[in-house]
Amino acid sequence: MFRYRQRVVTAIILGFLFVCAGCADKSVRVQEFSRENIVMDTLIKITVYAADPQLGEKALNEAFAEFSRINSLADRFSEKSLPDSETSDVYQINQNAQVKPVKVSDDILAMLDRSNYFANLSEGAFDVTIGPIMDLWGFKQTEHHLPSEKEIAEKLALVGYQRIVVDKEQKTVFLPEKGMELDLGGIAKGYATDMAVQRLRELGINSAIINAGGNVYALGSKPDGSPWRVGIQDPRNNNKIIAILRVENTAVVSSGDYERYFIIDGVRYHHIIDPSTGESARQLMSTTVLASSATDADVMSTTLFVLGSERGRELLQKFTNINAVFVDPERNITFSKSLNKQIDILDQANGQVKKEDSEDASSQVE
Ligand code: ADP
Ligand code: MG
């Protein structure tokens, strides 16, 4: 089975319907404005709260416009999906590999900068030059392919974020070898989410929730002042939530082996690749990352998924404000100690629950 592109959302927002702003002043009623759209091959749902209906609609329009804008810059298959046959920056960079540097937008430079920052920190576990490997496995088409070791080795020779030539002055990007391909699939949704949130804030929206296929951002609190509740899905049952996080002004981003995958002879091949092997990363079933930046949370969810919980924890220690929840192949749930007060484990999914950094790491949480 190959679940592709239009994925179910991974994080389920435990919503409520509405509404009265703090309820102190009954005359200022806040209304809910909600819309769903498929952008970036992902079902994106945005809900904003506003007293003025015109503002509510404008906020939705502008937030979605940010997703479309970033998609039109970062979509590496843009020749097919853009109606006016304009091609994206990323498409042009890839087309011009070994040919010439390509002038790009500030957004692409910002995404590359952040990608390379985390690539360095993770010793290449996050690598946006993973494109040729994604194509080899058939993750861009609906046709999957089980490649030979030789094929993987050939394509891996084209992977290496250190080889991307960025000229910040000239605002150009150059890939030095034909066949190299940028793939911003591990960052673009998070970056677009941050851009949409920024727009909402500029418009004066202080309560909203965005769910971009598992990339959630909870802006402010719920209109009644309580925190947003974001669920983490069971990696093997998309109708089941295994934990709930209570958050405000926080991105909650999940990566998992259940988003795009196919199974051959009982082995699951999925879309998060370990660049050191060219194969699907095998150490975890899912990661969920909390951070104030959706860009960082998106990159880190993919990075930690590749690193696994042990090396992932070492990387997390470099940050005071990024936290994570891991679900390992035995379905054990491990989470950053600082999440203690904001996480409820609903179902241990047959595994154990472990608090990272606790004195007895294997101790069960009640
Ligand atoms: P999703 O897109 O399902 O939300 P992720 O945020 O984890 O999941 O991103 C996975 C996507 O990132 C893949 O579809 C691919 O485009 C890209 N990718 C896969 N492996 C890596 C990697 N090791 N480093 C950077 N990007 C990756
Ligand atoms: Mg990601």
Description:
It is a single chain. The chain is of the alpha+beta class and about 375 residues long. The chain has a single domain, classed as ApbE-like domains (T-fold, Roll), CATH 3.10.520.10. It contains eight helices and 20 strands. The strands form five sheets. The protein has a nine-stranded mixed sheet with strand order 2-3-7-8-11-16-17-18-20, with helices on one face. The chain is globular. The two termini are about 35 Å apart. The structure holds adenosine-5'-diphosphate and magnesium ion (MG).
Average pLDDT level: 88
CATH architecture: Roll
Q: Give the % helix.
A: 25-40%
Using the alpha-carbon principal axes, give the shape. Answer: globular
Q: What radius of gyration results from the CA coordinates?
A: 20 Å
**Amount of beta strand:** 25-35%
| CATH C-level class | Alpha Beta
> How many strands, what sense, and barrel or not for the largest sheet?
9 strands, mixed
Low-confidence stretches: 1-12, 15-24, 357-366
Distance between the termini: 37 Å
The counted number of beta strands is 20
Gist?
The chain has helices at 53-74, 78-81, 89-95, 106-121, 131-136, 149-156, 188-202, 294-316; strands spanning 11-13, 31-39, 42-50, 102-103, 165-167, 172-174, 207-212, 215-220, 228-234, 237-247, 250-256, 261-264, 267-270, 273-274, 279-280, 286-291, 323-327, 333-335, 343-345, 353-355. The model is unreliable at 1-12, 15-24 and 357-366 (pLDDT under 50).
